[in-house]
Design a protein that fits this description.
Blueprint: H1 7-26, E1 30-34, H2 40-52, H3 69-79, E2 83-89, E3 94-100, E4 106-115, H4 117-122, E5 139-143, H5 150-162, E6 178-185, E7 190-202, H6 207-213, H7 226-231, E8 249-251, E9 266-273, E10 277-286, E11 294-297, H8 304-365, H9 367-389, H10 399-410, H11 421-429, H12 433-436, H13 438-456, H14 458-477
Parallel strand pairs: 1-2, 5-6
Antiparallel strand pairs: 2-3, 3-4, 4-10, 6-7, 7-9, 7-10, 8-9, 10-11
Helix pairs in contact: 9-10, 13-14
Length: about 475
């Protein structure tokens, strides 16, 4: 079984992780991506630029056609991204934009010439590039950026802030494996971008001794004695015998990785280009993330009056945009109030209809009330018949009135009858408003009873028919 970690070990590891997180969050991070259709070669240039910005960049950033610049800005804050490197292509030129988040500025460059990593490596006889070189950020070297002009100073500041700063008193030389060189030419106003791999070798010894100091031991099968290797340096390639001079020989303050690179000893720093290679030209500097005022333009220059007119026009556009936003908010609030009022009225209407339906159901379920109403209407018809004909009606002519008189004589409770299902359905399914009224229902019932009585008593039919006929004639005469 492995040994358990002590309390001090756990505490020191947690502290080291905390320091590493703080250090990682304090350094600048970048997104390197493209916008629009760029082609195969420029897409490879984007991937090579991501390799330069490692390890503080998104190596596998996926881009969709529907993504806009605001999408990248929205996720840059939570991820701690501070810079954008955006490539685009037109029919004639290739452009590179360098933006500082979150408020800008944005620098627009034109890529005059470029070479990919594969092109640079294939042109070298012996290249030096391995994965361990990209575990640490490169060393930034700026040359000729001290010339006059605010745009040059702003370019230098932007390039410096793209890479982590280095404390020369605390930096470890073993972490410096690459360097990025930016050289500005004031006459042509072009910027040369180069990416190199660093190698440190000891000086003051023969090529044979240097060969022995390397990890890969040379082939000595053709030698009779080791002195031939040390004195003559036979069978060594010309690329291994590089010329060192005062321009690249220095005294190391620390022990550097590699055999023979000791502190306070003379060593030569050799650079091997690994690409990509670009020639840039600054076109303009713009405030914000591509939406602000133009601070510098390499081609066109404007007078103060034109600049003031542009500022006034933009101010008017911003004011108009603010007015539209306020009006839109007011319209949204009004629509919301109308929606709430309509909702309340709808609920009131639903409640009122529900109460009316309940009241109708209660009237249908109380047949006694309907019978009393029908009896009162029958009494009115009897009285009208007396006044019109001048005779008492027959007993079977108005049975409801007869039933009412008999119940009043007996002084007993009125017996309520339930409506049959057939009659109830006829009542609810009737289309005529007269059929649905209580008076129309009573007339239908009395007519049915009369027809039943006429079938049982054929003589009554003549008497009733004659009475009705006389009643119609007298009514017509009157």
């Amino acid at each position: 079984m492995g040994k358990t970690k002590t309390k001090n070990q756990k505490k020191s590891r947690a502290q080291a992780n905390h320091v590493a997180e703080e250090t990682y969050g304090s350094v600048p991070h970048s997104f390197v991506f493209h916008r629009g259709h760029i082609g195969k070669n420029v897409n490879q240039l984007v991937l090579d630029m991501r390799k330069v910005m490692q390890p503080y960049t998104a190596e596998s950033l996926k881009i969709r056609k529907k993504n806009v610049l605001k999408d990248f800005v929205s996720i840059a804050g939570p991820l701690g991204v501070t810079h954008f490197v955006i490539f685009s292509k037109t029919t004639t030129t290739i452009n590179m934009r360098l933006a500082r988040l979150p408020k800008g500025p944005m620098l627009h460059f034109r890529v005059l010439k470029y070479s990919l990593i594969n092109d640079v490596v294939s042109s070298l006889k012996k290249h030096r590039m391995h994965g361990q070189q990209f575990t640490h950020h490169p060393l930034l070297i700026l040359n000729n950026f001290g010339s006059d002009g605010m745009h040059v100073k702003l370019m230098a500041t932007m390039f410096q802030h793209m890479f982590p700063s280095i404390n020369v008193h605390k930096v470890s030389l073993n972490n410096i494996k690459r360097c990025v060189l930016l050289n500005y030419n004031p006459e042509s106003q072009e910027i040369e971008f180069r990416h190199y791999s660093l190698k440190v070798v000891p000086v003051g010894m023969s090529r044979g001794v240097k060969k022995l100091m390397q990890e890969k031991f040379p082939n000595m099968s053709k030698f009779e004695d080791i002195s031939e290797l040390l004195m003559k340096g036979v069978n060594l390639s010309e690329s291994e015998a590089e010329q060192d001079g005062d321009h690249n020989i220095t005294e190391l303050p620390q022990v550097y990785s590699g055999r023979g690179n000791m502190a306070s000893q003379q060593s030569a720093v050799r650079l091997t280009e690994i690409g990509p290679r670009m020639t840039l030209q600054l076109m303009k500097i713009q405030e914000g993330i591509g939406e602000g005022n133009v601070l510098y333009h390499a081609i066109s220059s404007k007078t103060e009056e034109e600049i003031q007119a542009i500022l006034n026009r933009k101010e008017a556009q911003l004011k108009e945009k603010e007015d539209r936003r306020k009006k839109q908010e007011q319209n949204v609030a009004q629509k919301k109030e109308k929606r709430e009022e309509h909702k309340k009225n709808s609920l009131k209407g639903i409640k009122r209809k529900r109460e009316e339906a309940e009241a109708e159901d209660s009237e249908v379920e109380d047949p006694g009330m309907q019978e009393d109403q029908a009896a009162v209407e029958s009494d009115d018809e009897v009285e009208y018949y007396r006044q019109a004909v001048g005779e008492e009606p027959d007993e079977d002519m108005f049975p409801a009135a007869k039933k009412r008189r008999s119940s009043e004589r007996s002084h007993g409770p009125v017996k309520k009858r339930k409506l049959s299902s057939g009659k109830a359905s006829e009542k609810h399914s009737g289309n005529s408003p007269k059929r649905n009224s209580p008076r129309g229902q009573h007339r239908d019932k009395t007519g049915d009873r009369q027809r039943k009585g006429q079938k049982g008593k054929p003589g009554f039919m003549k008497k009733g028919a004659g009475a009705k006929q006389g009643f119609k004639q007298r009514k017509g005469k009157g």
